[in-house]
User: Fold DUF3606 domain-containing protein from Mesorhizobium shangrilense.
Amino acid sequence: MANTPSKDHRISDQEALRIAEQTDVSPRQAKELAKEHGKAKGEQEARKTKDEG
Assistant:
């Protein structure tokens, strides 16, 4: 089964830092969210955290 871009669960340190700068999660949390939910969904979850805070 090939990974599709929407199912990619890896993000680079640079991507994690970008997400962290735009939301209230740490780069580590951004990576954990991507691992758990996938890259796109993980970023959405990080933004939800910012909206809830």
Residues 12-52 form one domain. The chain has one domain: 12-52. The longest helix spans residues 39-52. The CA atoms of residues 6 and 40 lie 6 Å apart.
